[in-house]
Amino acid sequence: MTSLARASSGRLAENILHFARVLRAAGLPVGPSKVIAALEAVQAVGVEQREDFRTALAAVFIERHEQAALFDQAFELYWRNPRLLERMMQLLLPKVYSRAPRAEAEAPLPARLAEALAPPRAEDARAQEQETTIDAAFTFSPREVLQTRDFETMTSAELSEVKTMIARLRLPLPERPVRRTVAARHGSAIDLRASLRAMASAGGAVVPLAWRERRRRRPPLVVLCDISGSMDRYSRMLLFFLHAITNDRDRVHTLLFGTRLTNITRHLRRRDVDVAVARVSAAVSDWAGGTRIGACLGEFNRRWSRRLLGQGAIVLLISDGLDSDVGAGLAREMERLAKSCRRLIWLNPLLRYDKFEARPAGIRAMLPYVDEFLPVHNLESLKQLAASFQERHALRGASRRAAWRSPATLFAA
Amino acid sequence: MSPKPLPGSVDDVVGLLEQHDYFADRRLATSVFLALKMSRPLFLEGEAGVGKTEIAKVLARALGRELVRLQCYEGLDTASAVYEWNYPRQMIEIRLAEAIGKVDRDALAGDIFGEDFLIRRPILQALSSQVGAAPVLLIDELDRTDEPFEAYLLEVLAEYQVTIPELGPIKAPSPPIVVITSNRTREIHDAIKRRCLYHWVDYPSAARELAIVRRKAPGASTELSREVVAFTQRLRAMDLFKAPGIAETLDWAEALVALDRIALDPETVSSTLGALLKYQDDIGAVTPEVAAQLIAEARAEAAELRS
Questions:
Q1: Chain A partners of B148 at a C-beta cutoff of 8 Å?
Q2: Best of A43, A180, A265 to disrupt the B interface by mutation (most B CBs within 10 Å)?
Q3: Are B298 and B264 a contacting pair, CB within 8 Å?
Q4: Which of B13, B167, B180, B197 to mutate to test the interface with A (most CBs of A within 10 A)?
Q5: Domain range spanning residue B266?
Q6: Residues B26, A55: contact at Cβ < 8 Å?
Q7: A65 contacts in B (CB within 8 Å)?
Q8: Residue of chain B minimizing CA distance to A305
Q9: Are residues B160 and B294 in the same domain?
Q10: Would you say residue A120 has pLDDT above 90?
């Protein structure tokens, strides 16, 4: 410990504690053990050199590269003038310092959510009521009506019912064998350890062999969901669906795209669907705008694919394929995406139309690279999704293993 | 190789690493110093080829310690990472006991699951060292393995001990210097990171990269080294799928030396670009015109460095 640190250790410890609280309020996962580690680190490097001091704190408090920018800003502000920052934090995050219970602080959220899911205007609702009666004539229960109704034509009351039904949906992706084994009655490899243990206790007499087999596990899932204007109504319902599957299993990553790409995985991890969706709404800035599918897929390929598509991930691409860039560079990015993942599944709400044709340039550019092309416009189609994963398990066409297309053939196609 | 004392300050770390041909910036040196001082694992993340693995090797050399390396891969299990029983020997032991006629079953089971029959894999090796000569344990590319192994590492990293059911816990007499690297092909669980000191290893500044090239590729002339570094730095600013790391810069410098080049020209750049860029798209993006422009800029910058 340096003399300076010793002399001011009381104040310094207090300041570091405060700084840790500031970081926690700003969203960094800073627990008490880290504060102790930070004190230890600061004592080790001393406080003579500002840069060393900063690195010491950074090494302890940062866990991900993304947090570095936030840390640096907080550090700059705090260690220049702690009071200034505290005032700013109080201004920005009143709930952090007040002792108000959480529920109170988050109470306005559902209201905001209700606003985001604006119910249709009066005349729309009336028109849709009529439709409902006609549909009901052919079905048995309101629930079944809902299952086949298009999300786009639902009233807000129906939407909320669908929301609870979606929350119960599961996505049974086929399990894949991984390179790890478990004990099994009839396995593919001999479990020497267990066999020898049995042998030793049997005193060397003949002992039946113990076996192990490869463990099976569901592959990681990466969802890329389009939230442009043309997908507006669907994407809100799909968010509920994404929330359900994110919390049902591990290794699900979700990114939204319109004109830019946003990773919302962390927000969807919130247990409460309303809180999760509200956080997503706040995090995404390009709701219901244009679509630049090619550019967004390009960004995904460069920034995220190596981090998310390891270990045989399956990609769900949810989009209507209507690209405002008219497919510029789209084919190339689709090809890279398709070749970086185990399977590429395209869910398209436009597929509900019987006369759907792959006319738009964007759709034509994307189609050659998808393994499966499925509709996603109502609850029934979401359920069918689950079934189709199991049926077409083995379907990974020879076309997928084709060589990279040369640029010449790409433009000719 | 006798163990040397740990460095006493950040400056000592910088000096020590530099003696062994590793030019660390002050932030990395601070993290290394803290890891040694607080005996916590050092978690290094960064793009491929920025010298993450090298730091562990250099540390082992500089501190006179043994380097125990564990290369991670999917499905890595305790049998290949921590320990395994020597099954053939156990089997012979059982047969012998049988032949002698001494069949005290409990004693036999105790015998064959003793230390003599244990095969030590990297992690157990790193934990069973002499006091004061703890090795450097390099857990390389942790992102390649799966979550179950990460969970196993928690005990190792927190307590520096492993538990073998037949023998009980084995605790390291002095904790090893642990360096974990990750290329970030997936996020490592927060529980692991919480136990470590985190450092993001970035691409080096031009001056530091030049120092590295001068030291590691002494065959390249001063002029060529300057141009190579300036060119690579410019390449990193481009929108590439995979920007070249320091390892690639060194490869390229050596390739140019092998071709007897003393300065860059567009033709040479085009034909040796494969040493720097590893994706066809990226190589396609550096057309001869782009290369010519980058060379011109690199020359100008190299001239500035000289003056």
A1: 180
A2: A180
A3: yes
A4: B197
A5: 206-298
A6: yes
A7: 45, 184, 200
A8: B185
A9: no
A10: no
CB B73 within 8 A of CB A168: no
Cβ B187–A180 below 8 Å, yes or no? Answer: no
For the whole model, what pTM was predicted? 0.75
Q: Does residue A175 register a pLDDT over 50?
A: yes
Looking at the fold, whether A336 and A258 belong to one and the same domain comes out as yes
- A251's torsion region: left (phi>0), alpha (psi -120 to 50) or beta? left
Residue B42's pLDDT band (boundaries 50, 70, 90)? very high
Amino acid at site B246? I
Chain B hits for A31, CB-CB cut-off 8 Å, are 194
Asked which of B115, B139, B167 is the last residue of a domain, the reply is B115
Q: In this complex, do A45 and B31 lie within 8 Å of one another by their Cβ atoms?
A: no
Please report whether residue B194 resides in a domain: yes
**Structure confidence at residue A407 (pLDDT):** 42
Q: Kindly state whether residue B4 falls inside one of the protein's structural domains.
A: no
- Asked if A261 and A359 sit in the same domain, the reply is yes
Number of domains chain B is built from: 3
Strand ranges in A188-325 using DSSP code E only, listed in sequence order: 189-190, 211-217, 221-226, 252-257, 261-263, 314-318
Q: Are residue A355 and residue A236 in the same domain, yes or no?
A: yes
The torsion of the CA quartet B125, B128, B130, B133, rounded to 10 degrees, works out to 50
Nearest residue of B to residue A179 by CA position?
B75
Question: Which CATH number belongs to the domain containing residue B68 in this structure?
Answer: 3.40.50.300
Within 8 A by CB and 6+ apart from B85, the residues are A192, A193, A196, B112, B113, B117, B118, B119
Query: Has residue A347 been placed in a domain?
Result: yes
Domain tally for chain A? Answer: 4
| Angle in degrees, 0-180, between the axes of helices A232-248 and A156-167, rounded to the nearest 10 | 20
Partner-chain residue, chosen from B85, B98, B184, that has the shortest CB–CB distance to A204: B98
B185 touches chain A (CB under 8 A): yes
Segments forming the whole domain that contains residue A276 = 221-412
Residues A84 and A134 occupy one common structural domain: no
Do B229 and B172 belong to one domain? no
Residue-wise pLDDT for B112-152, tens only, equals: 888 889 999 999 999 988 877 889 999 999 988 888 899 88
Candidate from A52, A199, A203 with C-beta closest to B30:
A52
Are B196 and B261 within one domain?
Answer: no
**8 Å CB contact between B145 and B76:** yes
Q: Give the model's confidence band at B229: pLDDT under 50 very low, under 70 low, under 90 confident, else very high.
A: very high
